[in-house]
Amino acid sequence: MRTRLIILVLLAALAIAAYITHGFGLLAPQVGGPLALYGNVDIRSVDLGFRVPGRIAAMPVEEGAHVEAGTVLAQLDPKPLTDALNAAQAQVDVAGAERDKRRAGNRPQDIAQAEASVAERRASLVQTRQDFERRSQLFKTGTVSQAQYDLSEAQFKADQARLAAAEQSLSLMRAGFRKEDVASAEAQYAAAVAQRDKAQTDLADTTLKAPSSGTILTRAREPGAIVQTGESVFTLTIDRPLRVRAYVSEPDLGRISPGMEARVKSDGNPKLYRGTIGFISPTAEFTPKSVQTESLRTDLVYRLRIIVTDPDDALRQGQPVTVTIPDARPGGR
C-alpha cells in the first residue's frame, strides 16, 4: 500500500513537471486568437520628367497638391517640335508622291510621245536607206565618190541606231518602273512616315501628365528652366492602392498567409480600416528600427504587405499603424 502511494506521488509530480515545462521543452503551447503586427503606411513615389528636352513653359501644379491620373503637371514650349513635325510631314508628302508615281507607272502621254519618236526614227531610216542604196549603185559605176558613199552609209547606220534606241525607250515606257524601284519608293515612304510619327510622339511628350492619382511631394524645377531628357521635374507619391508594410516574427509566420483579412488602426484615428494580406516576403530580415514590437529588435521578421480596401485621406503615407489579423491560425510558442 505504501509503495503504491509513493508511485502515485511520483507520477503526479512527473505530470506537474511535464505541464510546467511543456513536455520538458518538447511541446510548445498553442497560441490562438487575433495576431497583432506593427508597421507603416507604405510610401511609394515616382520621379516624373519629360522624354524630350526643352524649355518649361508652364507648371500649373504646386507642391502638396493632390492630382488625379491624367492631370497636366507641366508643359514644354512646343514650337521647336511643331516645326520638326511640319518638316517631317512634308517629307511624307514627297515620298508619298514618288511612291504613287512609281506604282502608277508611266502616263499614256509619255508612252504616246515615245511611240511618236519611234515612228519618226523609222521614217528617217526609210529615207536614209533609200539614199544609201541609190548611192551604192552610183558608186559602183563611179558616179559617186568614195566620200559620198561613206557619208551615206554612216547616216544610214546612225539612223538604224537611233531607231533601236527609240524602240528600247518605248519598251521601257510600256513596262513601267521595275519592281525594285517600286519597293525602294515604298521603303522611302515608310521611313518618312516613321520619322513623322516620331515627331508626333515628341510633340505629345512636351506635355507631362500624372501617371496615377497622388500627391505632389516635390516641385524640382520652375517655368523658364531648360530641362534635359529624363530630368526630374516633379516627385509624385502614389496613394492608391494604399498599402501598409508590416512585419511578422518568425514564430508567427505560420499563422498567416496571403489573402487573409486584416484590420488597420492608426494612432488618434478611431476608424478601423479593412484590408487583405497581399504579399509575404520569402526572406527574413531584422526588425527595422522604425517598427515597435514586443519582440527583441534582433529577432528575425518577415515583411508583408496589406492592401487597404477602404482608405481615406486620414490615413497618411509613412504613418505608423497597428495591423490585426483576426483569423490568424493557432501557432506554437
Could you explain how this protein is built, in words?
By secondary structure, the chain is an alpha+beta fold. It folds into four domains: 1-27; 28-43 and 240-332, Efflux pump adaptor protein, beta barrel domain (Elongation Factor Tu (Ef-tu), domain 3, Beta Barrel); 46-78 and 202-237, RNA polymerase II/Efflux pump adaptor protein, barrel-sandwich hybrid domain (OB fold (Dihydrolipoamide Acetyltransferase, E2P), Beta Barrel), CATH 2.40.50.100; 85-200. The protein is 41% helix and 26% strand. It is built from five helices and 16 strands. It has helices at residues 2-20, 79-104, 108-141, 146-175, 179-204; strands spanning 30-31, 35-41, 45-48, 54-58, 66-67, 72-76, 207-209, 214-219, 226-227, 234-238, 242-249, 261-266, 273-286, 300-308, 320-325, 331-332. A six-stranded antiparallel beta barrel has the order 2-11-14-13-12-15. It has a four-stranded antiparallel β-sheet with strand order 3-10-8-5, with no helix packed on it. A hairpin with a 6-residue loop joins strand 12 and strand 13. Helix 2 (79-104) packs antiparallel against helix 5 and helix 3 (108-141) runs antiparallel to helix 4. It is elongated. It starts with a helix and ends with a strand. Residues 24-28 have low confidence and may be disordered.
